[in-house]
C-alpha cells in the first residue's frame, strides 16, 4: 500500500473514530436528558409548589376573614352607638308621629346590626375551619421538602456520573478532531449540521450511512471520486462521507 493510500485510510479511520465518539456523546446527553431522576424531581417539586400555593391561599383567606371580622366589629359598634343615640332621642319625643318614625329607624338599625353580627359569626366560624385546615396543611411540609431534597440529591448523583463520563468523551473527541485534517473535518462538520450521518463505509454494495444499496456504476464513481480526494467520497443517496 502506498503512502497516499495509507494516509487516506488513516483519514477515513480517524473520521469513523470521531463519529463513534460523537455518537456516544449524543447518546449520553440523551440519557442525561431522560434520567428518571429528572421526572422524580419534577414530581416532587410540583407537589411542593402546589403545597406552597395552597398554604398561601389559606393564609390569604385567613387575613381576609380577619379583616372581615374587624370590619364587622367596627360596623356593629357604630350601629350600636347609632341605636343608643336614637333610643335616647326617643325618650325626649312627645309627638306620636315623630316617635313612630324614630322607632322604625331604631328597628332598621337593629336589623342591620343583627345582619352584621351574623356575618361576623359566619366569618369567625370559617376562620376557625380555615385555621384547622392550615394546621393540617403545615403538618406535611417537612415530608414534602425532604422528598424534594432527596430527589434533587438523587438527580445530582445520577447526572454527576454521566457528566464525568461525558467530560471524558468530550476530551477524547477534541483529541480526535485535532488529528483530522481541516478539509476532511469541515466536510464532517457540514454533514453533522445538516442532520445526516456524517461518515459511512461500503458494506458490500451498501452505504452504512443510509443503508441503501448502490449500483455498480455508483460504486465505480465513488472509487473514482475517492481516488481524486484522498480516499473519501460522498454517498449519492444520503451525502455521507464514504470511506473507500
Task: Give a concise summary.
With 244 residues, this protein is mostly helical.
- Count of DSSP H/I helices: 6
State the shape: rod-shaped
**Rg from alpha-carbon coordinates:** 41 Å
> Main beta sheet: strand number and arrangement?
4 strands, mixed
Q: How many strand units?
A: 4
Q: What is the element string, with H for helices and E for strands?
A: HHHHHEEHEE
The share of residues in extended strands comes to: 5-15%
Strand order of the largest sheet: 2-1-4-3
Instruction: Estimate percent helicity.
Output: over 70%
Helix-strand category: mainly alpha
Mean pLDDT: 92
Low-confidence stretches: 1-6
Distance between the termini: 14 Å
Q: Care to describe what's here?
A:
The protein is mainly alpha-helical. The chain is 79% helix and 5% strand. The protein is built from six helices and four strands, in the order αααααββαββ. It has helices at 3-33, 36-90, 96-138, 141-178, 182-194, 216-228, and strands at 199-203, 206-207, 232-234, 241-243. A four-stranded mixed sheet has the order 2-1-4-3. Strand 3 and strand 4 (241-243) form a beta hairpin. Helix 2 (36-90) packs antiparallel against helix 3. The longest helix is centred in the first third of the chain and has 55 residues, at 36-90. The protein is rod-shaped, with a radius of gyration of 41 Å. Mean pLDDT is 92; it is low at 1-6.
Comma- or semicolon-separated keywords:
disordered N terminus; 6 helices; 244 residues; four-stranded mixed β-sheet; mainly alpha
Amino acid at each position: 500500500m502506498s503512502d497516499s493510500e495509507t494516509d487516506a485510510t488513516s483519514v477515513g479511520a480517524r473520521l469513523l473514530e470521531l463519529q463513534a465518539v460523537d455518537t456516544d456523546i449524543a447518546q449520553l446527553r440523551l440519557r442525561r436528558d431522560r434520567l428518571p431522576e429528572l421526572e422524580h424531581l419534577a414530581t416532587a417539586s410540583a407537589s411542593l409548589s402546589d403545597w406552597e400555593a395552597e398554604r398561601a391561599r389559606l393564609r390569604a383567606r385567613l387575613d381576609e376573614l380577619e379583616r372581615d371580622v374587624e370590619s364587622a366589629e367596627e360596623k356593629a359598634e357604630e350601629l350600636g352607638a347609632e341605636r343608643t343615640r336614637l333610643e335616647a332621642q326617643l325618650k325626649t319625643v312627645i309627638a306620636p308621629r315623630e316617635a313612630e318614625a324614630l322607632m322604625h329607624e331604631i328597628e332598621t338599625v337593629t336589623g342591620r346590626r343583627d345582619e352584621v353580627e351574623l356575618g361576623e359569626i359566619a366569618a369567625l366560624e370559617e376562620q376557625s375551619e380555615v385555621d384547622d385546615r392550615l394546621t393540617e396543611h403545615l403538618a406535611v411540609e417537612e415530608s414534602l421538602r425532604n422528598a424534594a431534597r432527596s430527589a434533587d440529591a438523587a438527580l445530582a448523583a445520577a447526572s454527576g456520573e454521566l457528566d464525568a463520563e461525558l467530560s471524558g468523551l468530550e476530551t477524547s473527541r477534541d483529541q480526535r478532531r485535532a488529528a483530522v485534517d481541516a478539509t476532511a473535518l469541515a466536510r464532517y462538520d457540514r454533514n453533522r449540521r445538516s442532520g445526516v450521518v456524517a461518515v459511512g463505509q461500503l458494506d458490500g454494495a451498501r452505504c452504512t450511512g443510509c443503508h441503501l444499496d448502490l449500483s455498480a456504476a455508483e460504486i465505480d464513481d465513488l472509487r473514482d471520486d475517492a481516488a481524486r480526494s484522498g480516499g473519501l467520497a460522498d454517498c449519492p443517496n444520503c451525502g455521507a462521507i464514504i470511506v473507500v
